[in-house]
Design brief:
CATH class of the largest domain: Mainly Beta
Largest sheet: 7 strands, mixed
GO molecular function, one term: hydrolase activity
CATH superfamily of the largest domain: TolB, C-terminal domain
Protein name: Putative lactonohydrolase
Keywords: Hydrolase, Signal
Number of domains: 2
Pfam family, one: SGL
Helix content: under 10%
Number of strands: 31
Radius of gyration: 23 Å
Shape: globular
Strand order of the largest sheet: 1-2-3-28-27-26-25
CATH architecture of the largest domain: 6 Propeller
Number of helices: 4
Signal peptide: 1-17
Strand content: 35-45%
Length: 419
């Protein structure tokens, strides 16, 4: 009897013999440019396989081979991938749109800041190639929008993170050397008045040491600037000096010049963002992209990829003790392990959802770190910003493209202070 049963089972296709397979894995849902992944594809039919990413090549979830479910191929032809159907479709609304507005160079495009009074989006372009580059501005007063270059006075070298606060653009200047446009600049924090084009240096050292990169930042309600300082300017040849400081994150008070270390536990702290009510702070660790640090070997300006190292967003509670004056991050916990590449740009929407650029797209996460939906692009997304009168216009940018999404997810109004 046992031999007979084994013989019968041997003729049943393996995919059908599995119990609990999600079928179909993917299906059309909502508008035509949207697909839904059922049950997060928790049980796939064998034999499935997702190749490893390596160095500069990121193998996305959609590239997983699933020959026993042809529905999986729908992931490759959709602008929006929904994982939580109810909340994801609500975010997208009845008519979500994705449009690649500008084809740009393969240089990294970063530090987007929307200035509501001008209805313009300011951003930067970085290496490669290494060198002094102008910034970019998108004029949203015109349709189609217009992209142009501009230089501030004095110029800012390699802005890598940016935000808007009390009428000024705050930029994290990520690179430095002693001959930029005839002057010396070092990694630090600069402001730009978008109405006069004048810039001011707020910070350029930690007790005489150069900062490493100043990658990303935000400004809190009291005017303190929180920023991350990984090693990427060295790896990307945007600085002539090997890192002098540990990769860590800081809080800076422009009114007094004080700088505090807020976290030193991450390998390469990258994106940083605050929740709308100011209770939580998120910092991403992208140390899966790392490199060699040695001033003796300047030719090793390069980064490598280790898939099993951290590409993780961490969530912290913000302790702000009015009696003692202590401000600290507590209760660190892993929040999201990016399903593609690394969580680069990082911001929090008005409703508290966390948004991050991850490989060729953007992931939207709820407050527990659950993936709700993903925007897909044909280029690596470094950062993004909300724009427009109601802050539902969403601009993405990276290596090779600048795109616009129209949906129902609103950004925080940075023209107002945090509550």
């Amino acid at each position: 009897m046992l031999i007979s049963l084994i013989t019968v089972l041997s003729f049943i296709p393996l995919a059908l013999a599995q119990v609990g397979v999600v079928n179909p894995l993917v299906q059309h849902c909502g508008p035509s440019n949207v697909v839904c992944v059922n049950r997060y594809a928790a049980v796939m039919p064998y034999h499935f396989f997702r190749p490893d990413s390596f160095n500069g090549t990121s193998i996305p979830f959609s590239a997983t081979s699933v020959p026993n479910d042809t529905s999986f191929s729908l992931l490759n032809n959709s602008n929006f991938i929904v994982y939580d159907r109810e909340r994801g479709l609500a975010i997208l609304g009845a008519n979500p749109t994705y449009e690649k507005v500008f084809n740009v160079s393969e240089a990294v495009h970063e530090a987007p800041v929307y200035v509501p009074g001008l209805n313009k989006l300011f951003l930067s372009q970085l290496a490669p190639p290494a060198g002094f580059l102008p910034q970019l501005v998108v004029d949203l007063n015109k349709e189609p929008p217009e992209l142009s270059e501009f230089l501030s006075d004095p110029p800012v070298y390699a802005p890598n993170g940016g935000t808007f606060h009390k009428g000024l653009i705050y930029w994290g200047a990520s690179g430095g050397n002693n001959s930029i446009g005839g002057t010396e600049q070092r990694a630090g924090i600069r402001t730009l008045d978008p109405h006069t084009n004048k810039t001011t240096t707020l910070l350029n050292n930690y007790f005489g040491w150069y900062f490493n990169t100043v990658d990303d930042l935000f400004v809190d309600s009291r005017g303190d600037v929180w920023f991350t300082d990984p090693d990427y300017s060295w790896f990307n040849a945007l600085t002539d000096t090997a890192p002098q400081l540990r990769s860590q994150s800081y809080r800076f008070r422009p009114s007094t010049g004080q700088v505090w270390v807020i976290d030193d536990t991450l390998g390469q702290p990258n994106g940083i963002a605050i929740s709308p009510e100011g209770r939580n702070i998120y910092i991403s660790d992208t140390s899966s992209v790392d490199g060699v640090i040695s001033s003796a070997y300047p030719h090793l300006h390069a980064s490598h990829w280790n898939q099993t190292s951290a590409h993780t967003i961490y969530k912290y509670d913000l302790l702000d003790d009015a009696v003692s004056g202590e401000v600290a991050l507590i209760n660190k916990r892993p929040f999201y392990y990016s399903q593609e590449w690394v969580p680069d740009g990082l911001k929090v929407a008005q409703n508290g959802y966390v948004v991050t650029g991850a490989g060729k797209g953007v992931d939207v996460l709820d407050c527990s770190g659950s993936l709700v939906l993903r925007i897909q692009t044909d280029y690596v997304v470094q950062n993004f910003a909300w724009a427009g009168g109601n802050l539902t216009e969403f601009w993405l940018m990276g290596q090779g493209g600048i795109s616009r999404v129209k949906w129902e997810l609103k950004g925080q109004d940075l023209s107002k202070s945090y509550t």
